[in-house]
Amino acid sequence: MTPADLSLTVLHAVRRAVGEGALRAGTRVPERVGIERPRPGGSGDWATNAALQLAREAGMAPLGVAQVLRPRIAEAEGIEHVEITGPGFLNITLADRSRHALVREVLDKRERYGHGDALRGRAYRLVHPGDVRATVLAEAVRALLLAQGAHVHDERHDDPRPRHDGHPHATRPETVTLRPLPAAHDVAALGPDAARWALLRPAAHDRALAPDGLLVQSEANPLFTVRYAHSRARALLRNGAQLGITPAYEEDVAAPRLLAALGDHPAVLEAAARHRAPDRVARHMEATADAFLGFQHTVLPLGDEKPSAAHRSRLALAEAAGTVLAGGLALLGISAPDYL
């Protein structure tokens, strides 16, 4: 279950509570509610502040709203239990079958996992000064907006005439001006992949990365680590095929960091699009790669160990990790080689 799925589940619980009279009639149901990882002291897989968000309009204390929503959320498919913490946060623990659904969703959608329609009906026109960093940033922002269903007019720093991507729509485009801090170094000699990472990995208001170290093949280079993690996932699939192991998520795998990173991917892509911040995707790729590399050694049988359902599940999770890494890098315009 993705954050977007959970948001819809919470909204459905709110609508039920209003319809059943448990919340004051006329309480406006928001378009979306926030879903995030639990804060320190919290529990479960996800948390929402929906009760705090609704309290004033419902005419109740946040804790009272949380108590109304808790059983209605807990009844939803894929939810194991819901706990109230603090002033009214709802902490949600997913059932194991939801983790199965997460892996299946990644493998079904492939590199389009995390793409959605959060910005459907919105139109943007990107404007930038035309230097190399601004141009690369505009390309990545355009890709992120399109991945969330928005219409994007071609970015042109020297042409004020609006142009669009060929999709008819009646919405007047919102002009977004991108002015990242210009690069202080010539990154052309790095090649396209390392150059884009140098320009996109820092936030737009921070300096672009210096070329030093971006071509080094070691864990000290985050770009290498991300691409290496993808290549390791692909290598595990090849090695698994040689052993006759077909990836299939049949048993819950004890890899909480990796499962959390995969589950966070849709929310990261949506936030990166809304804030025009591809650096969020780059940081998430680093976190996903780190979680996968800590898990990869458990995927295939060791020594005389016989292949089992556990190995098939781990291999499916490895495939899902590689898929997410490839999809995230593609949105940044960076290649994800199978061999590295």
Tally of extended strands? 6
Shape: flat
Distance between the termini: 32 Å
Structural class: mainly alpha
What is the alpha-carbon Rg in Å? 22 Å
Elements, N to C (H/E) = HEHHEEHEHEEHHHHH
Task: Order the strands across the largest sheet as they lie in space.
Answer: 1-3-2
Q: Can you give the helix content as a percent range?
A: 40-55%
Instruction: Work out the strand percent.
Output: 5-15%
What is the averaged pLDDT score? 89
**Ranges with pLDDT <50 over ≥5 residues?**
160-170
Number of DSSP helical runs: 10
Largest sheet: 3 strands, antiparallel
If you had to describe this structure to a student in words, what would you say it looks like?
This protein has 340 residues and is mostly helical. Helix content is 46%, strand content 8%. It has helices spanning 3-19, 50-58, 62-74, 96-109, 132-147, 192-200, 222-242, 256-274, 278-293, 309-331; strands at residues 46-48, 79-85, 89-94, 123-127, 151-153, 174-177. The chain has a three-stranded antiparallel sheet with strand order 1-3-2. A hairpin with a 3-residue loop joins strand 2 (79-85) and strand 3 (89-94). Helix 7 (222-242) crosses helix 9. The radius of gyration is 22 Å and the shape is flat. The two termini are 32 Å apart. Residues 160-170 have low confidence and may be disordered.
Which keywords apply here?
340 residues, three-stranded antiparallel β-sheet, three-stranded parallel β-sheet, 8% strand
